[in-house]
Amino acid sequence: MKKIREFIVNHSLLIVIVTLIGMVPMLIGYMNTRINYDILVYLPKDIDTMKGQDILSEDFGLGGYAFVMVDNMSNYDTLELEKKYRNIDGVNKVFSMSDVLDTTISYDVLPDEVKDKLYRDGTSVILVTFENGSSDEVTLNALSDMREITDGNISSMSAMVLDTMNLSNREIVVYIALAVVFCLIILTICTDSYFIPILLLSNIGVAILYNMGSNIIFGNISYITKAIAAVLQLGVTTDFSIFLYHKYEFYKKKTRDKKVAMSNAIKETFVSVIGSSLTTVIGFLSLCAMDLTLGTDIGLVMAKGVIWGVISTLTLFPSLLLVFDGVIDKTTHRVLLPKFERVQDFVVKRYKLILVIFVVLMVPALIGNGNYEVYYKLDKSLPETLDFNVANKELADKFGIVSPEIIILDKGVKSSDIEELSTKLKSVDGIDMVASGAEVMESGLYSAILPSDVRRILDNDKYQLMIINSTYEIASDELNNQVEEVNNIVHKYDRDAIVAGEGALMRDLVTIADHDFNMVNYTSILFIFVVMVFVLKSIGLPIILICAIEFAIFTNMAISYYTGTALPFIASIVVGTIQLGATIDYAILMSTKYLEERDKNDKMVSIRNTLRSSVPSIVTSALCFFGATISVYLYTKIDMIGSICNLLSRGAIISMLVVTLILPALLIVFDKFIMKTTRRR
Question: Which residues on neighbouring strands pair with residue 433, listed in sequence order?
Answer without folding.
Answer: 469
